[in-house]
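[Primary structure, fold]
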Amino acid sequence: MNESTEQENRILRKLRERRLEKEAQKKPEPLKLQSLSPSNRESETNLEKSRKRRSTIAARWVSGIFSVIFGSMAAGYAFLPQFRFDDIQITGMEKINKAEIVYFTGAKGEPVFTVDPARIRTTLLQHYQDIYDADVTIDFPAKMSITLTERVPVVEWDFGGSRFWIDQDGKVLSESRSQESTIHVYADSYPGAPNQADRELPLYFSRDTLKTIMTMGSFVPEDQPLIYTYKNGFGWDTDEGWRVFFGKTDSDIEEKLRMQESLTRYFHENDIEPIFLSLEFKDAPYYRFVEN
């Protein structure tokens, strides 16, 4: 009985040992830390450099492919006729020479990608005083449209035989193609001139001066020009045949006009024939008349 029990125990131990061996085989081997020796670090550095070189070479290939693609597109824009400006559409300002406008754009026959709309606008505004604005648009493959807006002169200034124009912004124009009606001013000088002999024109008339001209122009008798002199300012010839001046501004103009009417009645009632009346200073009007 004891021998049998001992034999069973041996069998059980063997079975237990085999089970432990099988379980040991299933467990992963413990990780082994790599040595941080100089040789290992150098190997890792070389591997990293190799990876970077391969990445750089790949990026250069991609960049080269895109460069070829874009270069081909640019060559197409530069050499193919459908990408060059042939017909430039110009609208607005019908009286202007459109062939001349096309010349100043510098875009005729040029590749579309070489033309700068902002530069064309600046060039046109510099060459043509009477262009208020130029809207330049480009549509692909090669279509250009230019819309011109004209400066509208509101005053024509006859300056001792020579003429210039003033637009709604006060800008002085040496020429004008506009057919719009303007206020005609006959003058021996201009507002703000340092002296009566000065002939150097300003680039702009101030807003206050332009307002005065427009106000005076609304009261001037029909078919009569507005008159401006360096000494007396703005005025006009009356229907009675004498000249009246109101000064260099439009201040108190309505009151001065009532004074003119009152003085006109006084002249008629007293058989006075004035040749000149100044209302520049409303508290001190004066006149000159013809003595019989």
User: Anything to note?
Assistant: The chain is about 40% helix and 20% strand. The longest strand covers residues 131-139.
